[in-house]
Fold this sequence. Notes:
Blueprint: E1 5-16, E2 19-31, E3 36-40, H1 47-55, E4 62-67, E5 70-71, E6 82-85, H2 97-107, H3 112-125, H4 141-153, E7 159-163, H5 171-187, E8 191-196, H6 199-205, E9 208-213, E10 216-221, H7 223-228, H8 233-238, E11 245-253, E12 270-274, E13 277-280, E14 292-297, E15 303-304, E16 309-320, E17 324-331, E18 336-342, H9 345-348, E19 354-359, E20 364-367, E21 373-376
Parallel strand pairs: 3-8, 3-9, 6-7, 7-8
Antiparallel strand pairs: 1-2, 1-4, 4-5, 9-10, 11-12, 11-14, 12-13, 14-20, 15-19, 16-17, 16-19, 17-18, 20-21
Helix pairs in contact: 2-3, 2-4, 4-5
Subcellular location: Cell membrane
EC number: 7.5.2.13
Domain ABC transporter: 5-239
Amino acid sequence: MARAIHLDNVTKEFRTGSTTHVAVDDVSLEIPEGSFATFVGPSGCGKTTTLRMIAGLETPTSGTIRFGDTDVTDLPPQRRNVAMVFQSIALYPHMSVRENIGYGLKIHGVDRADRNERIEEAAETLRITDQLDKMPAELSGGQQQRVALGGAFVQDPDVLLLDEPMSDLDAKLKAELRVEVQRLHQEMDATVVYVTHDQTEAMTMSDYVVLLEDGHLAQFDPPMTLFDRPSSSYVASFIGTPATNTLACTVERTSDAPDAAGTSGTDGECVVVGHGFRLPVGDALSAHVGERVTLGIRPQYIHPDGGAYSLDVEVEVVEPLGTEAVIHGRTAEGDRLDVVTDSHAVERFAPGETFRAGFDRTDVFVFGPDGETLLFGADLVTDGQPSSPEQ
């Protein structure tokens, strides 16, 4: 039976001699029962350590972990009803696929008939029924990982933990297994916690994404919330491919700095200024007038010859990706800027050329000096301000 997972102020420290390393720092969150949550982040951010604490393989230095209403902080793994699949495919080479899948059931005393029924069910779900009598050495990498998943599936766990199970597979197998894991989750009455460094896996598979940064919780939300409403420049840069463009700008008032037409506009209105454009934001950033800020624009929302606001971009590389292309370039001020556009960009743009790229203000983020998001451009559509420059 699936159970919600609660982490309350969980911290994990490792001590080496006189040195203390904080791997997970005061993380609190609730993963709803039956959901699929993915921990993602760069190497060393604390995602695997957190997974191991949920599994019972590590004990928190402080804080508590609950499954539903049950405090499992100090319970050993065998009393948590969890199953875990590791990055390394740990199969017994001298056992058949059938024996590998059913081994956990066997050591728990499940009778042969029930064991075989559950093995057959798992094999059918994972589409490896015809592999049951083979040995692991006869299987491909993807088939071996399916066997490992089957061994976890048959245990009927409350919580299924997956620690980078696809990191050693090629791109084609990863794509296939992403679908298999999601189908497996739909058939299980379990809460799934998945760890990966691949943000594509996190975005495509999850109900919730837990993004960590140096042991801290950066953001915990559904995937598209992280994409559309990142809480910081770190989240915006990590989630999404290519990474979010970031442009150095300044917040000014129109009354303090006349616009290109020589008029001051509405007294007191704030504008984000930089790279040849002036972006009106009403009074949303009035507390930050005179400050340096960072404007974020996703490459998918900036277009050649389009958008209400524009800037010059010098092309460095054009990367064809089949139905689309990515233009990698730099602004006149030297900031990196990527543009995702159609495949014709390969013929239209050449390295060294300069073109005009445009965007709409509803598609931007504004980050403060500390990286925290100050403004979502999408919110400006309701503030009575025009979405494009006044003519």
